[in-house]
Amino acid sequence: MGVRLMVVDDHRLLAEALASALKLRGHRVLAAAAPASGAADLVISRAPEVCLLGTAAPAEAGAFDPVVKIKRERPQVAVVVLGPVPSPRGIAAAFAAGASGYVRHDERIEGVERAIMKARAGEAAVAPQLLQGAFGELLNPAAQPDDEGARLLRMLTPREVEVLVRVADGEDTRLIAAGMGIAPSTARTHVQRVLMKLGVGSRLEAAALAARTGLLDRAGPVGGGS
């Protein structure tokens, strides 16, 4: 018995081609395309057994908001996300939103149909190779670029960043104070706070750390003081 379903994707050609292929296999396709912004409302109004919901960016925030809305208004509708190869985070986000499955845009029609049938039966529908890839990435994560500079930069106030840049430029306390229009004692206090926050014991170490982590490049030019 065919499934009463919808194919909803903002790429009309993809949606219509998939809908046509599913019709030929005996399924009742209610709609073939809709912009992402109106996908949830369309599905809610038609209430199919299964919805194939396309997404172009599963890693983006809010990508699965339509799934949440559909499941809140029509919990009986099984939603299978149709998208690019996802990260483990993307698969997890889809299921956390209430999806019953995830299939790739380039999946063969037989694989799409299997996902539809599993979703209608209340089973999780994810191709084994997708799960294998996700688990592989979780077990062997790709090395992330060193972003220590950004982390250190967030620890410092704008005034302390300016002090650090001046320290790295070789300015002593007197020059820092003059350049920033503050008292030497205040400049000295700022320097000590910078050293403490960076976890170093000298101005030379602070300058070296800032250069090594790219913090100076992120900081930009110093201001004229206030």
From TrEMBL:
Domain HTH luxR-type: 149-214
Response regulatory domain span: 4-120
Record-linked Pfam families: GerE, Response_reg
UniProt entry tagged with the keyword Nucleus: no
Top-rank taxon: Bacteria
Keyword Transcription annotated: yes
UniProt KW keywords: DNA-binding, Transcription, Transcription regulation
The protein's name: LuxR C-terminal-related transcriptional regulator
Organism in which the protein naturally occurs: Streptomyces atrovirens
